[in-house]
Design a protein that fits this description.
Blueprint lengths: L1 H36 L5 H6 L1 H5 L3 H11 L5 H13 L13 H36 L4 H14 L3 H15 L20 H7 L1 H11 L1 H15 L2 H8 L4 H23 L1 H14 L5 H11 L2 H29 L1 H4 L6
Helix pairs in contact: 1-16, 6-7, 6-10, 6-11, 6-13, 6-14, 6-16, 7-11, 8-10, 8-14, 10-14, 11-13, 13-16, 14-15, 15-16
Length: 336
């Protein structure tokens, strides 16, 4: 009976999270649209130029305004865009003169592997260091790791990116100064090694700034495990510290750490926007900044929705994992 009820509760938990994600995506896209609409940036002036716009007749300006949709009321423009988006049409980018879906696909392919590698490295390194610090509470290694985590947690990603750029690219000259591929090289000649070398500094920046939360959380959980009754019993049986950590510690802290790691997708994505600007990395973050400054509403809205979907997917997986593990979440009870 219980085994039959469990999948049903999980199903309703997943359905509830999916509805919540859909509502949040709608609200985020609506907020982004109206914020851009009230922005002082004029898409016509930015993309055509003040001088060229001044030499046009009112009829020509009206045609351009109709073509770009800047003359319609914001609510009408948003509903029209939302209807086309649900049909799979994200519109045409005003800056790139290409379909928004094509631009996002190209930029996302550059950013996705960058964020994925940084997410994996920061999660793995943060979990390992947090486990080591928690298992050696109060010792020198714990103090050093904790100090490192607190310092990096308060370090802006763009500042760290500038420091790494100055040290490894300008002073030591062992890594490229920016971009995702060597300058002047044709796309067919670019190898995986070239892309990997150009991604080292951005990945290193995101990994360093992204591991603090998982490190500190894992440390606290490991300390709780090491102070538990069953660990005291294991010590009484003669088990060594390493045996306790691997047999009891990691098994009890892995799933909470994994849940927190999925929830940290937003931090990695937010940091990538600043890091891509510093390293001139042609990814989704840099495209978002360009679209915002250029008044490219279709591209900006498309990036906003896709970015929010990535972040919400991470939070969705985290919530589902937590709800499956903790029965109190499935029953809708508050966890103290």
């Amino acid at each position: 009976m219980k085994s039959g009820r469990f999948p049903r509760k999980v199903f309703w938990l997943i359905l509830k999270q999916l509805i919540r994600m859909a509502v949040l995506l709608f609200l985020v896209s609506a907020a982004a649209f109206f914020l851009v609409s009230v922005s002082p940036i004029d898409p016509l002036k930015v993309n055509i130029g003040q001088a060229a716009l001044g030499s046009m007749s009112q009829e020509q300006i009206a045609k351009l305004s109709e073509y770009w949709g800047t003359g319609l009321p914001p609510a009408e423009r948003f509903l029209s865009w939302a209807g086309d988006f649900l049909k799979g049409d994200m519109g045409t980018s005003l800056l790139y003169r290409q379909p928004v879906s094509h631009v996002i696909g190209l930029k996302l392919s550059n950013s996705l592997w960058l964020m994925a590698v940084s997410w994996l490295v920061s999660g793995g390194a943060g979990f390992a260091l947090g486990t080591l610090a928690g298992a050696n509470r109060g010792k020198a290694v714990d103090k050093v790791i904790s100090a490192y985590a607190l310092i990096t947690a308060s370090t802006p990603a763009f500042w760290l990116a500038l420091v790494l750029l100055m040290v490894f690219a300008v002073w030591l000259k062992i890594l490229p100064i920016g971009l995702s591929v060597p300058i002047g090289m044709e796309a067919a000649e670019v190898t995986i090694k070239d892309r990997a070398v150009h991604g080292i500094l951005p990945c290193l920046t995101l990994s360093i700034t992204g591991m603090s939360n998982i490190l500190l959380h894992t440390r606290e959980k490991m300390i709780q495990v090491m102070e538990s009754d069953y660990v005291l019993f294991a010590r009484a049986r003669g088990e060594s510290k390493s045996q306790i950590v691997f047999r009891h510690g990691i098994r009890n802290i892995l799933l909470p750490a994994l849940t927190l790691q999925f929830a940290s997708v937003s931090e990695i994505f937010g940091g990538s926007v600043l890091v891509e600007q510093v390293f001139s990395y042609p990814g989704l973050g840099q495209a978002a900044v360009t679209a915002g400054l250029g008044g490219d509403i279709p591209l900006l809205l498309g990036i906003t929705v896709i970015s929010a979907a990535i972040v919400f997917t991470g939070n969705f997986i985290a919530n589902v994992l937590y709800g499956v593990v903790d029965p109190r979440m499935r029953k809708g009870r508050k966890v103290a």
